[in-house]
Amino acid sequence: MDKIAKLLADMISIPSVNPVAAGIDDAKIAGEERMAKFIAGIARKAGADVSFRYELPRRPTVVCKLTTRGAKRTVAFGPHTDTVSVANMTIDPFKPVIRNGRMYGRGACDTKGSCAAMLWAFLRAARENLPAKTKTNIFFIGLMGEESGNDGVVCYCKSESKLDFVIVGEPTFPHVVYAHKGAFWFKVQTKGKAAHGSNPHLGENAIGHMLDVADYLRNEYAPPLRKLRHSVLGNPTLNLGKITGGVQVNVVPDHCEMLVDHRTLPLLQTHEGIYRRLTADLRRRGIPARIERYRDCPPLGTDPKLALLQQFHRVARSVAPTSKLHGVAYFTDAAMFSKYGSPAIVFGPGDIAQAHTKDEWIDLSHLQPAAEICYRFLTQL
What domains can be seen in the chain, in order of their start residue? Predict the structure, then answer.
């Protein structure tokens, strides 16, 4: 097993399940603290300045810095250290196993593979004193909370200076992602008045109101979205994901709730604008409904002509010739870095198809090339 694969195996062995995303608070497996401390110990030995940002108990973001006097720029690697739940997995989630060129375990793909490859590049940069040679500050930021709302990156960006360029770790190999859809998740609530089911005219049916909301979303709001199109992301989408309401069959329901997943496009839509329009449209139609935003990650649309992005992609093609500038439908911490003024791309070993699966794995042939791309990019700054 080579050094990067060994590093990944060590990371998989350290549970770092996101307790919010998984709905658990089991101290044995929940929280990013042990992963953060593991990374911190390795980075300190390499001479990095290390600090922790504790957004929540047992859930820090670890910030490792290689700095130099007179630096002209600051670039950062930004993988997240949390994983999704281990419920219903068919393999031991924290016992890495290699079979047929794949390493299995929770987080192998999403995103401890990126953590291992990027940390390897960061450590090599430290050994070779690249910050001084390139006049570049180099950071490794192990972000908490990506799986439950981008909490770590938001807190980091609010308390730290802007970065010149960020490579956010996610399984995209060999492609370099510069654009992805945003996620505007909102909750619709309707109120009514309870009554006996034999006299529904004495009540007000909250589910009936929600049917009016669903009809508006599907038949009036959604169709014009087909006219919006991004060159690499396609159209925005709308999914009515969950509806709950009522107590029992013979009671007029006085409450109903619906969860909606709206995937959005950079430049063509703003989440604030969407919220205002939905609220105003429902009010004009006289539908007694309230909209509450509960997850809001903007789309990513980094300029593909950005010099550092082009430089990174040239390096990626030199190692993996099939690499393309790419767009994806899922959302990442890169959008939050970009929102707060730090240009970002998404890159890392693995394939998103293996993320969150019951037997999560990563193709080990991706690790060394991904790490090499990250390292070579640093040498050419």
Answer: 3-180+299-379 (3.40.630.10), 182-296 (3.30.70.360)
